[in-house]
Amino acid sequence: MSDIARLAGVSVSAVSRALRGSPEIGDETRKRIVELAHSLNYTVNVGAQNLRLRQNTTVAVIVPSLSNLRQRLTEPFFISLISAIANALTDRGFEMLLTRVEATRTNFADAYFTGRAAGLIFTGQWLGHDQLNELALSKVPFVVWGEQREQQVYCTVGTDNLQGGRIATEHLLEQGARNVAIIGDFNTLELKNRYEGYLLAHRERGLEPAADLLMQTSFDTEAIERSTEALLARNKPVDGIFACSDLTAMTVINTLIHHGKRVPEDIAVSGYDDIELASYFRPSLTTVRQPMEAAADAIVEALIEQMKGERPASRRLVTELVKRESTAPAQMKPRS
């Protein structure tokens, strides 16, 4: 701001008033100051001003616009997450600004720096770890939904994905399945940990799943169908499938039925998330429930603490298994 004042030949306070649109500054002077600010890529941090004045009660919830990510606004899990966050913000007197940004852009925090929001919530870890650390060190208040990482200085709230993968796989093994496949996009940290839980459940029983039971696929219906068909074309037995999201599990089940397989009599299937559709799907879906309301409360509370100048610890919430018809314990016979 001092550079603008020097170039415009006015005081710093005059620059501040002009950029705020104060009527005390003449139109010609204001225009000259605004043009200089644009040429220097200067933006007023209205967010900081509003926080000092206790005026800004808006929180930006940021969703990426990359089509290959699971985080699409039409994806039921993220609809549930965003809805829960909106409720948590409303309960605490805040408004929500839902915004989408290109994950490859560098101005992903513009909602804060331009003053539209007093804090940020990122709906996943699509930003680089170093970028998030740098943003945290600049004292921007934000919380990330996702897994904790090593050497992390920013705050995350997520669920225990390793334990979730473990309990889903344990359940399939307890039902007698011995050739359990896993389907998902394991390029993400959350799903990598679900896969580690899948391996752990096997190894605790002295088992080692075949390498070709790991089906890497994007969260795309056609890709999931192709992976399921490739699994069936192995000419090796498969009697259980752990799908790493509920929509993936539903696509898997539809594909299995299309190819003449019965669920769960021939192949038992477990999902992950416990979206609302899981209980209405047929067969109703056994799945790992992520506690959305508790997660949203934890996210918003952590953000408010940061806005007060505090440094909240990251949190990892507990998941639970919800048993339904797609594994149907009462109908399945243990396999030898």
Automatic annotation (TrEMBL):
Q: SUPFAM superfamilies, per this entry?
A: lambda repressor-like DNA-binding domains, Periplasmic binding protein-like I
Check the UniProt entry and state the signal peptide residues, or none. Answer: none
- Alphabetized UniProt keyword annotations: DNA-binding, Transcription, Transcription regulation
List residues of the HTH lacI-type domain. 1-53
Top-rank taxon of the source lineage equals Bacteria
Which InterPro entries does the entry link to?
Answer: HTH_LacI, LacI/GalR-like_sensor, Lambda_DNA-bd_dom_sf, Peripla_BP_I
Keyword Ligase among UniProt keywords:
no
Q: What Pfam families is this protein classified in?
A: LacI (PF00356), Peripla_BP_3 (PF13377)
For this protein, the record's PROSITE patterns field holds:
HTH_LACI_1, HTH_LACI_2
- Provide any one GO MF term from the record: DNA binding
PANTHER family given in the database record = ALANINE RACEMASE, LACI-RELATED TRANSCRIPTIONAL REPRESSOR
Name of the featured protein: LacI family DNA-binding transcriptional regulator
Organism, per UniProt?
Massilia terrae
